[in-house]
Amino acid sequence: MMNPLPPAANSYYRATERGRPASTPWLSESRVDVAIVGGGFVGLSCALHLARAGVRVCVLEQGDIGFGASGRNGGQVHVGMRRDQWWLESQFGVARAHELWDYALEARRHLDELLARYQIECDFKPGLIHVNHKAKYDVDTQHYVDHLSTQYGYDALQYWSKDQMQTELSAQGYYGGCFDARGGHLHPLNFTLGIARAALSEGARLYTDVCVRSLDTQSAIKRVVTSRGVIEASHVVLAANGYLGALEPKVARRVMPINNFIATTVPLGERASTLIKRDAAVSDSRFVVNYFRRTADGRMLFGGGENYSYRFPSDIGAFVRPFLEKVFPQLKGVALDYAWGGTLAITPNRMPYIRELNPGYMNASGFSGLGVVLAPMVGKSLAQALLGDRDVFERLAQLPSTAFPGGQWFRSPALVAAMLFYALRDRL
Alpha-carbon distance 203 to 420, whole Å? Predict the structure, then answer.
């Protein structure tokens, strides 16, 4: 059984969505080539690329399209994996680190292709600022920018000193950092709905309000038992991410759901451009990251704080407000029009968990907060594997993965203890 859905989002994204595609009428006892569990970035992208190749594919989403993390996140467009290239080099070697970097660049190009080919309107804006909350991080940032330039040929990243950062960002508690011209931000719900429309246009079936109760994936013909009936498929893709629940214990031991929270202010008018001079996304160096940006209508959208249960705070705006006002004290007391939470999924090493669990039964999840660019690309890679080109998938499936201490049922206390330690370290 999958996790219960989170509360309906009082989100800025819901209030500004650009049309919702109609879901496919349910066909009981259906037979398809590929059944995909989860209608977020991975599942929809996989369905799109399969349908484009003429495969009979359906997506099973227990809410409506974009109800989960894909339609609730901060909308930040990052280039790279969740871990930096230094870490990847130390863990996997230089050659493998270069392969992963090339994959990340291809994921960024894939985003451009989706937006252009299917005319997805999602308020994309280029530019992402990464800012240090400790002065001692500035030297490492400068060295890292140099490393990406000299060793990877990536010249879109610039080091910014504290003085330059202060001319670009009217925020407190920050020093230097870097600016990535290939980063950016977008409206994630409209991006998700755009991929859904594209998948439908190519012939995919999208079933919403369908809860997957159990899976039988041992045989050549797999059975997906849902709240509306049974679907048989030659292949099953599990793309449930933070909403997996107890549906697949093999994944649940390695992928942990956590909640993150966002609020948006009332429209700030010209004041918004004084807070972030250029219309770029911003994220900081804290382990529990603060991230923020301007919206298309001049609000400040701010993400801050996490918790590790299936319950959301009763007043999410009050939960986020201290993080917002610490970074922008000039916004103290500003009215918040929207506040919402979402459930994402992390892994112990923050690398996605991508595997073929049984023949013809694949999983992709655990993007650890960096799914806007990578997850749609992984969906494409799953589709390519199902179409017979398994090379990229096999390389992704070789990424090491460990289980959380205590397994599925006792992982949460260990995670909370670790997160509290890192949150304390952020403040020291």
Answer: 47
Alpha helices in 169-315 (DSSP H): 188-201, 249-252, 271-275
54: left (phi over 0), alpha (psi -120 to 50) or beta: left
How many domains does one find in the chain? 1
From start to end of 189-290, where are the E strands?
A: 205-207, 212-216, 222-226, 230-238, 256-265, 281-284
Task: List beta partners, residue 342.
Answer: 260
pLDDT single digits (tens) 267-285:
999 999 999 999 999 999 9
The structure tokens listed for 360 are: 């013809």
Does this model's pTM top 0.85? My answer is: yes
Interacting residues of 127 by C-beta distance below 8 A, sequence separation 6+: 179, 180, 181, 183, 184, 278, 279, 280, 281
User: Residue 220: exposed, middle, or buried by beta-carbon count in 10 A (0-12, 13-18, 19+)?
Assistant: exposed
Asked if pLDDT for residue 45 goes beyond 80, the answer is yes
- Residue 413: exposure state from Cβ atoms within 10 A (0-12, 13-18, ≥19): exposed
Nearest to 272 by CA among 339, 321, 322, 328: 328
The verdict on residue 145 lying in a domain is: yes
- b/e map of 90-110 (b: 16 or more CB within 10 Å)? eebeeeebbebbebbbebbeb
Beta bridge partners of 354: 364
381 lies in a domain?
Answer: no
pLDDT in tens, 334-368: 999 999 998 888 888 899 999 999 999 999 999 98
The one-character DSSP state at 53 is: T
Per the domain annotation, does 377 fall within a domain?
Answer: no
Whole-number Å distance between alpha carbons of 220 and 376:
27
Helix (H), strand (E) at residue 137: helix 137-152
DSSP run (H or E) holding 70: none
The answer to whether the CB of 254 falls within 8 A of the CB of 354 is: no
CATH code, 169: 3.30.9.10
For the chain, give the mean pLDDT. 91
Strand 157-160 and strand 353-358: the pairing is unpaired
Residue indicated by tokens 């797999």: 222
Residue 151's contacts (CB-CB under 8 Å, 6 or more residues apart) are: 85
Q: How many Å apart are CA 57 and CA 298, to the nearest integer?
A: 40
Residue type at 171 in one-letter notation? A
Which domain, by its residues, includes 297? 125-183+257-346
Would 221 be classed as within a structural domain?
Answer: no
